Amino acid sequence: MSKLDQFIDKCKHHHLKITPQRIVIFKSLMNSKEHPSAEMIHKKVKKEFPSISLDTVCRTLTIFTEIGIVHTAEGHGDPKRFDPNLEPHHHFYCLGCGRLTDFYSETLDQVKIPDEIKQRFNIVHKRLVLNGYCEKCIKK
Amino acid sequence: MSKLDQFIDKCKHHHLKITPQRIVIFKSLMNSKEHPSAEMIHKKVKKEFPSISLDTVCRTLTIFTEIGIVHTAEGHGDPKRFDPNLEPHHHFYCLGCGRLTDFYSETLDQVKIPDEIKQRFNIVHKRLVLNGYCEKCIKK
DNA sequence: ATGTTTGCAAATAGTTTGCATCCAG
DNA sequence: CTGGATGCAAACTATTTGCAAACAT
Question: Which of residues 45-84 of A touch B (CB under 8 A)?
Fold first, then answer.
C-alpha cells in the first residue's frame, strides 16, 4: 500500500474529504527533507496548483498535525517565550494549551550528544522536549 | 555578591548601560517561575514602571538572551514549522539563522522519561533539542 | 443534496524598525 | 557632553476568522 493510499485511508477514517489541495500538500510534505513553514509549502504547491491559497495550506497543515501526518517542530507559532531558569532542566510542552512545564532529571542532563554533532555545531544548550497533553487538556 | 550585582557586572562587561528599565525587567525575570512572553513581562513591570513600552521589553529580552541572562524556550518567534519526518530523531536549532537540523541516535531515542512525568502527562512525542550555532553562523 | 472545504478579505497578534528625545556614564 | 537607550508610530510578518461560492461524497 503506497503512502498516498495510507494517507487517503487516514483521511476517510477521520471523515475528511479527499480534495486535490490536500493531496498536493501531502505530496509536497513527503518530498520535503526540511522543516517547512506554511509559506514554504505554499510556494512549492503553487507551482503545481496555482490557485491554492495560503489559508488553505495553513488550515490543512493544522489538520494534518492533528491526525498525526506531520509533527510540529519547535516553534509552535505562539509568542516567543523566555526561560529565566538557567539550571539544567527539561520541558514538557502541552499541544493543547501551550503550557510549558519544567522537569528535572540528572540522568537526562547527562545524556551524550553524538560526537559528529558536537564537532559540527557550537552547542550552547541542550534539553529534552516532550510534546503531549496535560491533565486539563486530556479531559476535553 | 547578589544576583543584581552579578547582573550589573555582566552589563558593564558587555558595555550596556544600567537603566532602570533593564533593572526592573531583570528583577521580574528572576521572580518568574514560568516561561513568560515579552507581553507577560511587560504587563508585570508596568505596575512598577508604568511608562515602560513593550518595545523596550522586547529589545531588552533580546539583549538578555544574547548575553546569557535568559534562554529562549521552544517557540523562537519565527513561523511555525512542520516536520514530515516521523522517524525517531532529534533536532539541532541554530540560534543564529534558525535552521533546524535533524540528527539520529538510538541511545537518545531510548532515554527514559521520569515516571512522575509519564504519569502526569500524555506524551505524544519526545526529542532532544540542542540550541547553538551552526558553522556558517560561528564565522560571523 | 448537503455539509465540508475553499479562497478571498479583513482582523488579529506579535515583533521589528526608523526616528526624535532623553539620560547614563 | 555624547552615544546608547527609550518610547512612539508605522511597518511587517504570520496566522486566524467570517463568509459566500464551490466541490466531494
Answer: 61, 64-65, 69-84
